Amino acid sequence: MGNNHSNKVTISKRMEKFKEKGDEYHDICNYQQALSLYIQAIDEIKSIPKSDDNIDRFEFDICINICSIYMLQNKLIQAYKFNQKAEQLAYKLREPFREALCLDLHGDIKRLQCGWNLALADYNKSLDKKLRLLGRDHLDVSHSYDRIGHIHVIQGKYDDALSMYNKSLNIRENLVQCSPVHLAESYYNIANIHNDQGKHEDALILYERSLQIRISALYSNHPDIARLYNKIGVIYQKQGKYSEALSMHDKSLQIKTSVLGNNHVDVAESHNNIGTIYNSQGKYDEALSTHKKSLQIQLSVLDADHVDIAKSYNYIGVIYNNQGKYDEALSMQEKALKLRKTLFGHNHIDVATTYYDIGIIHSNRGKYDEALWMFEKSVQIQTSVLGHNHVDVAKSYNSIGDIYNNQGKYDQAITMLDKSLKIRKFVLGQYHIDVANSYNNLANVYARQDKDDEALLMYDRSLQIKLSVLGHDHVEVAATYNSIGGIYKNQGKFDEALAKHEKSLKIQLSVLGDNHADVATSYDNIGAIYSSQGKYDEAHSRYDKSLKIRLSVLGHNHIDVAKSYNNIGAIHNSQGKYKAALSMHEKSLKIQQSAYNSDHIDMAASYDNIGKVNDNLSKYDEAVSMYDKSLKIRLQVLGPNHIDVTKSYSNIGLVYNNQGMFDEALSMHEKSLKIKLTVLRENHIEVATSYNDIGTIYNNQGKYDQAFSMYEKSLKIKLNIVGPNHVSVAASYHSMANVYNDQGKYDEALTMYRKSLTIRLSTLGSNHIDVATSYGNIASILSKQGKNEEALSMHQKSRKILVSVLDRNHDNIAESDNNIGLIYSNQGKYDEALSMYDKSLKMMLSVLGHNHIKIAKLYNDIGAVHNDKGNYDEALSIYEKSLKINLAVLGNSHIDISRSYCNIGRVCMNQSKHEEALSMYDKSLKIATSVLGNNHILVAELLSNIGAIYADQGKYDEALSKHEKSLKMRVSILGLNHVDVANSHNNFGLIYFHLGKYDEALSEHEKALKIQLSVLTDHHISIAISYDNIGLVYNSQGKCNEAMAMHEKSLKIKLSVHNDDHVSVATSYHNIGLVRANQDRYAEALIMYDKSLKIRSAVLGYDHIDIAQSYRDMGFAYYKQSKYNEALSMHQKAVDILMNVFGGNHPQIAISLGNMADCYDELHQEDAATAMRHRSNMNSNRLYQQNTQQLTNPSMELNENIMDEEDRAQEKRFQQLLGESLHSAELSHHRRNSNIDSGTTQQTSNQSLEKYFYTIASGISIEWTKLAAVLDSSIDIDVIKVRHDQIFDQAIEFLKQWYQRHNGSCIDDLLSALQTIERPDIISMIHDKDTEQQ
Predict the structure, then answer these.
(1) Distance CA 1143, CA 753 (A)
(2) What is the pLDDT of residues 810-836, one digit of tens each?
(3) Each residue of 1020-1051: b (16+ CB within 10 Å) or e?
(4) Contacts with 745 (C-beta within 8 Å, 6 or more apart), sequence order
(5) What is the pLDDT of residues 1106-1123, one digit of tens each?
(6) From CA 669, how far away is CA 654, in angstroms rounded?
(7) pTM of the model
């Protein structure tokens, strides 16, 4: 074939020996020794002056071998040089076969340089030469088909590759003398295709067939056998069979070390393979150690810029990334990148791979823009080298889609993931694990958008592929079960979610063992379900298991350990263990700060968690500070239009709401909503959440229609997305019920609360904290409807759940005790109420500390009991404690501060310290109007309260003005048919009653009653009080039978609602006693008074104003029975109580002292009577001076709108008003029936003239002062005003003093004075009375 040289050159034995020995080393992969010997042989050839064909062929073979070694060492320039030399020799010899071999090697070099099309061209040229020279059925032709197949594999053209490999296999199978090793190679190549296509079982069969052939054909320690063990190990790893995989890699390693020693590149490769197994098992320390061992070998035997060293840097970088050591990971990947760029240039597939891995690190650090940049650089290289339709390109598109998903750019995410899926399906077919992963990633995006149906469809597709490819017991299958469980959790299907997570856990435990990071994740998922179900102990147990695994696998400073601390912290927070929660969240944050060295998105979540704990602790400034930090990170990392940014705005809004800063809160929630509507769609669960949050603000502002509108919007979205039986729908019904409750629409509220409860029971079970909340809410409505026993039962149900679910020392349990205390308080069981409050207080103080708004609220409730019991000093002390806490926590301008001032004002009012009360109300008003505006239900309450003070002071015109404003406001906000509107009518009735305008009073009380009967149940305490008010009017009109009927109706209701020892029952007995006294049936009156007194003494204790009232009226009854000593004793007891309650100066004390003076008169103890009357006058004078000083104090400015605390029980307010009316009625009754003098000649005439006093006082109103000016201007009318709160009583007192001074006066004097002040109506009434008596 070649030219024959005339002078034949002999190949020396030395040259042959170098080659033979080099071939031996080459066969056992000792390439460095082989290369050394080949170079020596080449040097020997160079020493020959002339060559012939034999020498050229000899040199050709050596050049080919050197070229192959340099290619293995990735020294492509040297390889190209020796291949070029071989090519020159082949052309010199004119042997086409050798030319073809050179083309093959040239193609191999191009392949390693990623010049795949150039390589393919060389392989095809070689194939053409071989086919022409050797024909189709030749072994070397099969080698060419293999080479072409390799290129198609790299390009992802698996069908084309398989076609080439099958052609190669057919040739080898048909060759009689073909070595079995060549058949084994074909099986190996086809197995690689199956492996890449995810057909692991098919690949495994062929690998094992190839292995058996090689074992029988080669010696047991052959490198090709080691290579097959590696491949089989890779299959087992993909199948999740890590023990079998490790066994295969160990076998491979043993062969390599036995043949090559411990310090060889192939041994290093095995260490890297074993390291990847440890990585998959989550054994990062072992993985890192193994990869570092590999790197150490490579650095010792290879040049520092070898491609294998770059690969080890890459492996180590991946481990550091998984450990959360991002700086170290980045350092390793950058080393790998530098090497690869040096070796391959910028446009090489390995460079693209490194960019991709760096992108993963940036993604994990939350640096999404940097990650995106890396992925885009990677895909740019991949598409230029591999084309657009390659699996590596699909992988990059997939990661870009994940970044867009994390950035909340869902449409862009879907676009990228669809691109990835399309490529994978085209290249890999429908049933490949990468296709399954594409479906999984699409599902993740749909899940973030709350498109649960679409997400579940994608997860199911992914699952079906994984089951068919991987089988049932694979970690990838477990991962999909976990994802499906997450969807079920979001849908509130906790049982289904738990089943999926437990299925996942079972697979992981069987495949990975009980100490793997993935197992820890499953425990986390199960813990999250238990947490959502309110099963905090079970959740804590799972989170602890997860933490234990992570600490042992990942070490103490891994970000997943930080996640565990956050999860446990969240449980502590839910359990009310706030200090423990804070400790956990701070631990988490510390790890994150050390791991990320910058503001990472995970740190935003930790700041959120710390903020939530501070919010629960009422540390609002600290909470806002944390949420601000979170917001800053999210804005920096994610940009202003990301869904996670809305979390920060919403959280800040919630704190502002708690601080009573409603405008600021609304602004935050509206910002959140705007982003959600931009990023998501109108019909998204997150949008529904924002509408709900905004509704809550409107409700707190008293804008009920707007609140309800927001809640309805929220509910509509939820029903559309999650259906009617979801916990979020229950939350909407709960919110709507709150509005109805605040509007006084108790039936509607109850319906909504029960709807919410039904859903919660069906989705959460009977033992969940939200179910307990529902029972508590229902109880509050039942209590307002007067159904205290039913309410108590509900609260006890609620408490039982809370005790079973929460830690026994939890503020929610304390609140439940507090609620039970409120019921006892409503029932008049004040000792039981105080006992529950004390229990609640101790628990709250231990959990929350002294400075918390819940403590302040509890002090308010305790203060209310002391106020109701008449323990005014204690009440004041407790209210001031509450105020102090609120000021420290909430600042000066919060609605709770307003309520505190109002509560203090209420005590001052009960103490008749009217100006102090007004001062408190003024402070309350300034806050209320600044926070809530001028048209709010609480402002209406304030107007009502200030009206009550004016009425107490006898300023009835001013009182009516305030009540009219209050009524107008209530009607505009609540409508005509509301209990608060009824309250306003009752207030009008009381004023008209005091003015003696009984018809108008009756009309108002009947209006109130009509509303109450339409809104409340028939047996509500408020209705009973209205009956009492009407009865009092009838009694004052002398319509005793009608009065008795009303009071008996009232008593019947009270006995049905309360026990027979309730203070309101005592009030009814007292009212019946008043009617009997008015009928001159004093013995029966005394029986009723005594019944009332026994109840009041048992419930209220000795020093209470109501008991003083009982003694005073009993004194009057004894007086009318001429039992003056008994009367005196009763009045003395009344004075003693009043002195203890009010101190030395009070109108009621002056009145009681006057009553005692009357008794002494009747007992003819004139000195005692004079002394007592002097004490009474002195008391009145001191009061007048005090009030004058207060009235002339320029700092006392009263604001127009003052409100009381809205959430005080209605019954208590009515009882207060009723008490005032009773006080007024009994005073007037006593004074008008009291005998003034005990003289013999004057007594009859006095009595005969005194009978007109009632008629005059009833009709004259404020004009009694004009009458006083005409009759006797020397009488001090200011003292009378101070002494008596009511105008009627003032008129009676004046007439009495006038008559005492002018014993000779007669009816004509009175008629003349009435004529002077132009009151013919009263003159007419006096004549009518005379006619009636005649």
Answers:
(1) 48
(2) 888 999 999 999 998 888 888 899 999
(3) bbbbbbbbbbbbbbbbbbebbebbbbbbebbb
(4) 1015
(5) 899 999 999 999 999 999
(6) 8
(7) 0.68
